[in-house]
């Protein structure tokens, strides 16, 4: 089904297709995948650029032209029609939440959720390409969307004209424990910088923990949960956002509201499947919990980052319905996502923005991967943080397109 709509400066076509939950069982349970096609009124016959959003568990952004949102949209529309895919389980695609899993045992829920990783998203994209009758297209993958793009290069390279990565070149074959050890090292360094920049926030942080305010959801704020505000520090504006939170009175409605946004109520699939996105053939077994450095037991004011822990599924009301299935998925032997032999023989033009101080995707591992993908051109920069595509999207996309087209 396709519906055409117009908004200022844009022609928007909404596409919905039905795909198998398990692409290996095409006659089994079916789900909906939604994509929003965005075109300049004078560019409706341009080739496609498919945007794969970060996450896992977040839908594509909703586009506007004046001002351009997302920030890279104007640059993209100069050359392409943009296809914004709501990855399975998100947005207008069949969602994942307590209501959609009701009536299933925890084992049945786990059997359902194992089909929401990058490999299934790649198969959905190829089903959509067939539906639209498109030749091979360009894919732009941000963060987890880059993980999906690497899986695309591994599994269905015939569907790709170009592959563009922004902060999203994952390690190939490395154990999640190695990933989280590296990210903790970066988070500890960001802690040092933050407390040096805003030393007064140290006492405010501890005061907020001791106050244990009740949040808007009814959850009580704990030390572990407030520590997760450190996830903000991987964004260019992150220190200022964290400071704006900590300068509020912890008993105020404003603090209760803003601290709630640290949680996972809107997109629980992120917490449930986050560690699996780093599993290229491993059991995760609560990797972030097991690899937490000893410093966290010694200093209450140390912040964490993009880490998921088993305590969250007890303490956060929005995640309690997923507690049993999260335990099952932590013990699941995830299959490999990336084919090193295929990547070594890659023929698809590819370029990747690798951010030297990326808090979420370890740059040393990204460069290791870049060396394993034939022809991939890395752009290594310390100018940007992980959110560069959102902060300066036109320039980032322009640079990547120059690389794959041989203009740099």
UniProtKB/TrEMBL annotation:
<comment type="similarity">
    <text>Belongs to the peptidase S33 family.</text>
</comment>
<protein>
    <submittedName>
        <fullName>Alpha/beta fold hydrolase</fullName>
    </submittedName>
</protein>
<dbReference type="InterPro" id="IPR002410">
    <property type="entry name" value="Peptidase_S33"/>
</dbReference>
<keyword id="KW-0378">Hydrolase</keyword>
<dbReference type="Pfam" id="PF00561">
    <property type="entry name" value="Abhydrolase_1"/>
</dbReference>
<dbReference type="InterPro" id="IPR029058">
    <property type="entry name" value="AB_hydrolase_fold"/>
</dbReference>
<dbReference type="GO" id="GO:0004177">
    <property type="term" value="F:aminopeptidase activity"/>
</dbReference>
<dbReference type="GO" id="GO:0006508">
    <property type="term" value="P:proteolysis"/>
</dbReference>
<dbReference type="InterPro" id="IPR000073">
    <property type="entry name" value="AB_hydrolase_1"/>
</dbReference>
<feature type="domain" description="AB hydrolase-1">
    <location>
        <begin position="48"/>
        <end position="193"/>
    </location>
</feature>
<dbReference type="InterPro" id="IPR051601">
    <property type="entry name" value="Serine_prot/Carboxylest_S33"/>
</dbReference>
